[in-house]
Amino acid sequence: MRKWQRVAFSAALVVVAAGGAAIAGGVANAQPGTGAAMRPASADSRHKTATVAANKRVVLAFMRDVLNGHRGDRAVRYLTPGMSWHGGTVGTVTGRDNVAGLMTTVVTAIPDLHVEVKDIFGENNKVVVRVVVTGTQQGPLLGIPASGRPVRWDAIDLYHLKDGKISEEWAGEDFVAFLNDTGAYKAPWIS
Hints:
2 domains; Nuclear Transport Factor 2, Chain: A; six-stranded mixed beta sheet; 5 helices; globular
């Protein structure tokens, strides 16, 4: 064993003994003369981490204020002018005011709407959120008349942010669950 390998191995043992297994892996795998184990995170990686955290805060604030707060009119605060909402078979809604109108329709039709965040992940300018949505359909929505019935569905939504605002959303909603709960459609696999 070379001298630098013995030093790295000894340092790794000390770190592991102190409970820092993740750091130990970096020390043990360091190449001689590179300083890789001791190099601090780059300014770029710190900036990316800060950007992801800020983007998550924007998405969470949007859901808290607009959806859980039942204030569709406030959606414009969180959206870029050219914002697009992509709803799969429901279609695409483009333009900040139009998307705010969609959000207003949703929170008006389900006035007790509640979005519970189960998971949130981010990378660069994208945030993915897995949620469970619950409420009572009191008004028409998606062409379905008010049913007065409780609804619950799962969703995984991808948000794209630009300059601290939401520029696109890809909504992966379980609309079959919504249709089932409202009585509009009963899928053969749902008992």
